[in-house]
Specification:
single chain; 361 residues; Aspartate Aminotransferase, domain 1; Aspartate Aminotransferase, domain 2; 2 domains; seven-stranded mixed sheet; three-stranded antiparallel sheet; 13 helices; binds 4'-deoxy-4'-aminopyridoxal-5'-phosphate
Amino acid sequence: MTDAADIPIRVRPEIAALPPYKQGRQAGDEAFKLSSNENPFDPLPGVVEAIRAATSVNRYPDASATRLRTRLAERYGVALDDVHVGAGSVSILAQLVQATCAPGDEVVYAWRSFEAYPWLAVVAGATAVHVPLTEDSRHDLPAMSAAITDRTRVVIVCSPNNPTGPVVTQEEFDAFALTVPDDVLIVLDEAYAEFVTDPAAVDGTRVLSAARHPNVVVLRTFSKAFGLAGLRVGYAIGHPRILDAARSTTIPLSVTAQAEEAALASLDAEEELLERVRAIAERRDRVVAGLRDAGWRVPDAQGNFVWLPAHDETLAVAQAFDDGGLIVRPFAGDGIRITIGEEESTEKVLAVAAAAVRDLP
Ligand code: PMP
């Protein structure tokens, strides 16, 4: 291979310095994979059948995923153009950032939050501005509001927050949105919305139907509650003027016919799938209670994952999980995110966590 120094292609310096997106570790056959907030249930037979029956793979899909958008528009009581579908909600977020940010414009978000936020901002040539979470791992919305400058184009609110777990309440969100200038896009990332059991939590669909904040776009996904992470399909709901801008930046034809059919079949089976979601949420609450009993200071968990603030011991504790056949997601120096997975994994999680807390200095 030619020496890298002899390839004179000019890569943008911020891209050359950017590590590629890192996903949670894959697990071997023996281990439980609790590192990527996936759904542990196998797909429903009806969903598998819909994928099999989808348009033959030698044909391109419908570029605007009209059937799925129509179905979602009916479900949420909005117009067809108020819905946009993408190859995962993360790709829609990338489109929104690209559509609104020129070099030097700012994207404000809480930190720690979803790893992709700073990465998407940098790729778009924008400046990533992160605002530390509060002591109890929640969004500090007044501080986020104060971080907005005349270069801010996008503010991202993640509820429930990945990886720490708490939600933003409806009341907090409404008060915050009123402080955000009308020309700043608020992205409300609700990838884990279906797992939320706190009635005070913000609900993006309610925000939109009340038409209180026209600069809000809500992001949701079929990857988590609906168990279609491998097929890559998510959606946004918001004003068509904003979504048209996202549509203009879309890489054409990236939502496959298989993904569209699987999403439609999942909506047909929504009740059954939400039953599974309820089982995961109950499991989550049991794990949180067990971890707290063991002495961990676990923040409120409203997604399909829990957060262990292990601080400087993070890598050592993650190794203990690994040794116990549990692949978790460590964030060095900060904490560990553990996905709520198979029922059989929960006792193991609690046993390793209880032993690890005793070993903490
Ligand atoms: N938002 C958040 C907060 C997430 O945690 C994730 C996935 N980890 C996504 C968005 C992206 O999900 P997808 O692209 O699979 O829809």
